[in-house]
Design a protein that fits this description.
The chain is mainly α. It has five helices and two strands, in the order αααββαα. It has a two-stranded antiparallel sheet.
Length: 147
């Protein structure tokens, strides 16, 4: 099998796995977005990012590649914000807003998907660990400190 094709599988597969890992937390907490959705968000972000850097001989033109990468990142991250906005619920009577952490999870998942597409493996590893700590450990601390 072509080594380049294996690299594509690794990048897209890892992006999907990152989304699934973050989604497990959302599923376990009965949130509206879970493993499948966040797996798809990360995969979609990675597909767009990877496709943009795979275009023809783009790598031979660093200035053009830089502009394309910047545009892709801006577009994906802004677009994903709309998905996240769909899970934010405001209850003016109770003066409470819910879903912000889930919305942030969507946004971070897309960012990690882009990092997978760019094969920024250290960034992916550290980002995923920090995201899981924020979602699991800090949720546990919040829960027990509010008692």
């Amino acid at each position: 099998m072509d080594p380049h094709f294996l690299e594509v599988i690794l990048r897209l597969g890892s992006a999907t796995a990152v989304g699934v890992v973050i989604g497990i937390n959302r599923d376990l907490n009965n949130k509206p977005i879970g493993m499948r959705t966040l797996g798809l968000v990360a995969l979609g972000a990675a597909v767009i990012a990877l496709a943009s850097i795979e275009m023809g001989d783009m790598h031979l033109h660093p200035d053009a590649l830089s502009r394309v990468v910047q545009g892709v990142i801006q577009g994906v991250m802004a677009g994903v914000g709309f998905i996240g906005a769909g899970v934010i619920l405001r209850d003016p009577q109770a003066q409470r807003v819910e879903g912000i952490t889930t919305a942030a999870s969507v946004w971070v998942t897309a960012a990690l998907g882009i990092a997978c597409a760019f094969a920024a493996w250290r960034v992916v590893a550290v980002g995923l660990v920090i995201a899981v700590v924020l979602l699991v450990v800090l949720a546990w601390i919040e829960h027990y400190s509010s008692r």
